[in-house]
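Student:
Attend to each token:
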Amino acid sequence: MPTESGSWAAARQTKQKRKSHSLSIKRTNSSEQDRLGQPRDMLEGQDSKLPLPIRNTLLELFGQIEREFENLYIENLELRREIDTLNDRLTGDGQTIDGVELSKGQLKAKASHSTSQLSQKLKTTYKASTSKIVSSFKTTTSRAICQLVKEYAGHRDGIWDVGVTRMQPVVLGTASADHTALLWSIETGKCLIKYTGHAGSVNSIKFHPTEQIALTASGDQTAHIWRFMVQLPTPQPAADTSQMSGEEEVDVSDKDEPEGDGDVASDCPTIRAPMTSLKSHQGVVIAADWLVGGKQAVTASWDRSANLYDVETSELVHSLTGHDQELTHCCTHPTQRLVVTSSRDTTFRLWDFRDPSIHSVNVFQGHTDTVTSAVFTVGDNVVSGSDDRTVKVWDLKNMRSPIATIRTDSAVNRISVSVGQRIIALPHDNRQVRLFDMSGVRLARLPRSNRQGHRRMVCCSAWSEDHPTCNLFSCGFDRQAIGWNINIPALLQEK
């Protein structure tokens, strides 16, 4: 009867030990599940302030996490045993690999390389197995903190900009490529006023700090100043969207977008001519804003210049030149006579008008692609966003390098910063809106699925500090604006 060789017997013995050890692990984990099942049942029986659907979702996610980690624990032990076996084989004296005699140093190097490969496999398996669960958990948390309140649909083309009045009554304004600007009741979603004075795309809308006056910039190479008077309708109860299910993101065809048939805006009063027209540019006026006090306005154009106007006389006060390519945005400081302009030349410039006799300019080169917007905060910071997929936070006292950099996976459009909590809202080309703090820490992502959220590129975001229901608005190429309720205390607590 033939006898087994020593190496074959050792291999079979190792295999039997591994099999018995695996069975032991399964029995141990089975008893462990029985032991942990009782506390979980007790937990499910306890009173909780969480809504039942959210509570059930959390329990289900925690159960998935437990099962995944159990499987990973078993696989981890098996891989470690394979590593030990491989090391024993490679470090044994007198063995050969592929017919070549190896020294002990070479054998140790070979064992180290194999160990590294198996360790990398373990890490990859862990990341792949848990990423989906963690993503689902974050999505559920975001939905509890960030809720869609109202959708504002009525434009016939994409919406470039969104703004909120700074005085009572608080209304929403949208600027669209359909050559119109609309004012909306935030509570009811009803169109209050339609402005049709422009002959081109309306690219931005800003409201006067103390009066019911709007400033709009257009592709017809002008900026218009027009007065409005609104009377808000009686608020109706908002639909509860907090119980919407958390489907994964899906692509939605154009037919699922809001139908801009004009019915929403046809019944509201129409303003057809401006109070004042600003006409000094030789190209598209892409943005405009009020200087502090509201007596002057600044415009940014594709003719590579920004203009400062006297509102009462419509006279050009300063022409701000120096950018090498088209301007993309302009913004004014809320309390000081400072202006920041951004451009496709990858820079943004800070213009200082605090001294009436002279204005200074500083150029900042921190991005590698178009700077889509740069905005001031209440303090001494400027936040810039770019097509290079980054957002940078700068200190006005030392602008040589950013104090924080946020790296994202998509181009960033017109950003906004909340006045009170200094939270940055980032609208993206990939239909997402993300929230970050000033140090670059990600706080949340606004929910987006086939039932809610934007279906195309998000162009702009705007915070509202004075409205009790909606404190963040966004707009995009899907021809709608959205009002969001952000639970800021809960958001900061999650941080």
